[in-house]
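Subject: Sanity check before I submit

Could someone independently write out the structure tokens for this chain? I want to compare against mine line by line before I put it in a report. The sequence has 317 residues.
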Amino acid sequence: MCAAVYVLSTVTGYVLTSALLLKCPTLLHRRKRGTFLSRHISHRGGAGENLENTMAAFKHAVDVGTDMLELDCHLTKDGQVVVTHDANLQRGCGINADISSVAYAELPPYLCKLGVTFQRECFCEGGQDKRIPLLRDVFDAFPNTPVNIDIKVNDDKLIKKVSELVVKYDREHLTVWGNASNKIVKKCYKENPHIPVLFSFPRVLQILGFFYTGLLPFVPLKEQFLEIPMPSIIPKLVDPEKLTRTQRIITWLADTLLMRKALFKHLTARGIQVYVWVLNDEEDFQRAFELGATGVMTDFPSKLKDFMDRNGIDKTQ
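---
Independent answer below. Compare away.
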């Protein structure tokens, strides 16, 4: 009887303490101080309105009023850090060659028409700018715009060179970097702990485990940005009739577990920004902001900006 009372009192104390710290995390953790707040993030510069990861896309997004440019980096054969998504040039340029095997001066231009990854049956046709830019081109052109860098491959040299460019352009306070790979994120943090890092995919799963077991309020977090997908958009990206019953159940379960207002609220209270990607419909914009996401990542910066203006969503909220 005494043992049962002890266990019950211990469990009750744990649950009550966890609930209190979930709502008031600064009782245990110092709030992280960020130098920027991003509500409007342009995925690959806005891949639905201009050719992805081009200077034209980035300029358009900045002109629209985006708070952050999201982009991807690779290393060329001659050691240049370029901004492009795929490791291979086939999809973007129509040439079956890895970027790492081609010198920068020999890189082909993008095709005139590219598919928009997160919008089914949607293509973007570009104008004059089809060049794959250098990362330093972006830093030169937009010195005051926060940039979200996806390190696409596990390459120590790439990580080192990106860090050197960030330092050279005095952008440690305007940059966040990382990847879904935990190995890459760890290397980024080790290379330059002054540049904020993203949660890797394994860390996202770990955070969810902590959240649902009540441990999250007790765990210190070094990351400052959580970027997660909204699983409910999957039926919009593929033909719904091709989704099996199992796939629909998994999608529903993932969405239910991941899209949690209490989780977002706790993390943002600790100074961790929560970005939901890649959303291209107004109903998804609305849902993300209602759940408490700090920002939304989109392929259509003009559409998101119009939505935010009409609904009075700004950086102060």
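---
OP: Matches mine. For the report I'm noting this point. Strands lie at 40-43, 68-75, 81-83, 113-115, 123-125, 147-151, 175-178, 225-229, 273-277, 295-298.
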